[in-house]
Design goal:
This protein has 299 residues and is an alpha+beta fold. It folds into 2 domains: 152 residues, Jelly Rolls; 109 residues, Arc Repressor Mutant, subunit A. The relative contact order is 0.10. GO terms for molecular function: DNA-binding transcription factor activity; sequence-specific DNA binding. It comes from Sulfurisoma sediminicola.
């Protein structure tokens, strides 16, 4: 007799805006709303979720929040901005009455920019970041003023709205990018930043296929040594470690959010042998996958 299969637990919800299903096809999609507009509806708590193809920035000007970002937890205090690139799992618990807003846009607005502009925004796209807006006098006020102008355009559409969105959004992101402390990226040139962004895009698409570094280099039409020099300069690690870190991040996400057997997750991550996956995970984290899952559950 065939044993009935246990239904597989759902993965992390993928939303457009929190609580809303569907895909965004507009490559110039821009949305802005106050934090209270959505979080108050859910008791000031936003459960774990992610966005595909959407870049978000949460700006906090009053109150506070406990932030869960992938498997990290920290407190966010104003004035600050939280940068969340696509596919990063995040959740929030806001203090009631928290003031601020959430800006959401299609990541194509940034990745589709010309090379010099992509270089300016690359620090924001390199990963999630918590950015202190209070380190320089007036920066928080300038960011708030630009966001208010975006609100105005959003509430009262007028001629040239898309162009105005484009200018205002780029202005506020550039202010935040200036505040972001990203020393490894500070000396990059547009060409190097563009090449690194292309490498990261390939890693995102193929990390679970376990491409070797020479294959990435071949697709990028560069030597393996040049790719390694680029990664050391812009990320502080080798190309191999960039790929392995992305694979590890996905492993941690699956172990934390999906209650499937470790062996099944290993196969989903492209490992032919679950034992090899366990060795890989323990080597890079210091604990076995089962131990990591148990520790996260206890936390």
């Amino acid at each position: 007799m065939t044993r009935p299969q246990r239904p597989r637990p759902p993965e992390v919800p993928i939303f457009t805006l929190y609580g809303e299903q569907g895909a965004i096809s507009d490559l110039e999609f821009v949305h802005i709303e106050e934090i209270a507009a959505r979080s108050q509806r859910y008791g000031w708590e936003i459960d774990s979720h992610a966005h595909r193809g959407l870049f978000q920035m949460l700006c906090l000007f009053g109150g506070g929040a406990t932030v869960h970002l992938d498997d990290a937890t920290f407190d966010m205090r104003p004035p600050a901005a939280l940068v969340i690139p696509p596919t990063v799992v995040h959740a929030f618990r806001f203090l009631p009455g928290t003031q601020g807003c959430v800006l959401t846009l299609a990541d194509a607005l940034l990745s589709g920019a010309d090379a010099p502009q992509r270089a300016l925004f690359e620090p924001l796209m390199s990963g999630p970041h918590l950015v202190d807006l209070g380190r320089k006098d007036g920066v928080a006020q300038r960011v708030a003023a630009l966001l208010e102008q975006i609100f105005d355009e959003f509430r009262f559409p007028r001629g040239g709205r898309d162009q105005m969105f484009d200018w205002l959004v780029r202005a506020v992101l550039l202010l935040v990018a200036r505040q972001l402390s990203a020393a490894p990226l500070s000396g990059s040139t547009p060409g190097r930043a563009d090449l690194f962004a292309r490498f990261r895009g390939l890693v995102e698409a193929h990390f679970a296929e376990h491409w070797p570094v020479p294959r990435y280099a071949a697709v990028l039409n560069v030597t393996e040594s040049r790719l390694n020099r680029l990664c050391h300069a812009l990320a502080g690690k080798s190309a191999f470690d960039v790929v392995q870190d992305r694979l590890l991040l996905e492993a941690r996400r699956k172990l934390y959010y999906i209650a499937a057997p470790v062996s099944q997750l290993a196969y989903e991550l492209g490992f032919a042998d679950p034992a090899y996956f366990c060795r890989f995970f323990k080597k890079r984290t210091g604990v076995a996958p089962s131990t990591f899952r148990r520790q996260r559950g206890e936390g």
